[in-house]
Amino acid sequence: xxxxxxxxxxxxxxxxxxxxxxxxxxxxxxxxxxxxxxxxxxxxxxxxxxxxxxxxxxxxxxxxxxxx
Amino acid sequence: xxxxxxxxxxxxxxxxxxxxxxxxxxxxxxxxxxxxxxxxxxxxxxxxxxxxxxxxxxxxxxxxxxxxxxxxxxxxxxxxxxxxxxxxxxxxxxxxxxxxxxxxxxxxxxxxxxxxxxxxxxxxxxxxxxxxxxxxxxxxxxxxxxxxxxxxxxxxxxxxxxxxxxxxxxxxxxxxxxxxxxxxxxxxxxxxxxxxxxxxxxxxxxxxxxxxxxxxxxxxxxxxxxxxxxxxxxxxxxxxxxxxxxxxxxxxxxxxxxxxxxxxxxxxxxxxxxxxxxxxxxxxxxxxxxxxxxxxxxxxxxxxxxxxxxxxxxxxxxxxxxxxxxxxx
Lengths: 68, 329
Fold this sequence. Notes:
The structure holds two protein chains of two kinds. In chain A, 60% of the residues lie in helices and 0% in strands. Chain A is mainly α. By secondary structure, chain B is mostly helical. The longest helix of chain B is centred in the middle third of the chain and has 28 residues, at 143-170. The two termini of chain B are 13 Å apart.
């Protein structure tokens, strides 16, 4: 459990086109292969749809909540 | 985008920002008159995201956090003004010292007046921060209460100094782990937001468990905010140009396959100035390999932790609906 699994999942999803396609179509089936915590699973599913490899995903960041 | 707190919104933020500015100027007035030092110190206090900045009237009200927490726990927010002023003075001191270390800004005090004057200004700001807290005496806060606040305040800024020390001495480009990085961020950055929440709750007279909840909220909010900074540093290219080690960089260095990792190492694991940085290439690598996506997930995890506290905090009879605003909800 913990971020190591999360990092591993992100690494594999982004370097394996088949897994990436599976993740996009059925994220739960990919998440189940990794030992993610409850919070990590919820966050991954919540962010699903924006794989972060596009400027749009980054534009979703509100710069107003940046560190003071 | 002013905080939509209560029905007043912008007016609410404007009024309290003006009160904070007045408090800050009262503290600056403690300095000897007619020598220009107070005027000099107004410069870092008026920088973007600081209490005297014009944008403070409508930007995210980080500067009002102690007041908001104090009010949330049923305290008189005006009692938190000296604490909020102390907070701004310490942050401004940190800015001046950072500018001395970075030596890359034409507008900094060190660039305009020299390192000696800048060091003196930072020292004065820190001394005034403690002076600001002692002004609570005028608001009928007990001596023991003031001493407790100073102790809490200083303990957090000692933590921040510890984080800065680790950053400068241990954030070795060839030996970076995510856990170490997050520990440094927790000490250096998140501790300051935790401090604002802790002191706001203390001055508001909150009980121990309520204070603990606000501390947890502040810590997680601070972590989320710093990771947001990390992501913006990549998307704007600024942190890449400065070869700053942040969470997306650590993900990349620890997970990328050889060819791409070597491209990243060329930027981050060489002596600065040794080679030109292709910012677009590094941005592409961080996007295509999920480094930014991963940072975004981590940011959301901390946000979620903070949100859970917001939801639970109602159990402590405190109103923290404004917490959603800081979390971008």
